[in-house]
Amino acid sequence: MFILFLLPALAEATYSITVYGDVLRDTKFFTQTYPWIIDNIGGDISADYYLLGSGRYSVPQMCALAQLKTNTFLQAQFLKCEAEGTQTEICLCNSGIDPQRFRQCVSEKGNRAGIAASKYSQLNLDSSPIIELWPKNTISDVSDTVYLKKICTIFGDEDRPRGCIKPFDCNGTEVFPQRKAVAFFDCCRYDFCEESTTTAYTSMYDYGPSTEAWPVARRKSIKKP
Asked: 30-59: per-residue pLDDT in tens?
């Protein structure tokens, strides 16, 4: 006698969102709102990014995010780090970016800035940041909780993750402590650990001035008010 067990499919549906914005201008969104959204449902979605602003910094940002495609938590951490005005090399190192792949992407993918601008223009919206759920369905200029509530509609009623049903307190530190993910820790091999007493950085690492090992577009840091 043969008994046939019907096992549920192992493959899970992939839900995706698209994020439009200027990381250096939309600082509140990328330092508070987006990390909180990802803390709640980052394990259940993937994200594509069309970043605005000068290609001097948006192209390196999109190259880094492309490497982190399979981990939205590290993507959100990298964007938060950039929006806070931290030195770009530190944000890259903390996120585990491969230097050689990054160098090649920045050198060859300058057209990503034009593609992002074109995609944004197609939305025909004068707003930033914007989250697109699917064509003709976008979210912008709403509160943190409304962003999350609307994104959660893509899951339907039966597949909603726990973060949609019982989200962490909005940007609270008591329920969800502020601690960085660790993806890479041997940054000294890329000359980020120089002996210097003139520059101090608030980071999980104490780096000195960067070298030219990374082709990162230079920009002024945004200081918190």
From this structure: 999 999 999 999 999 999 999 999 999 999
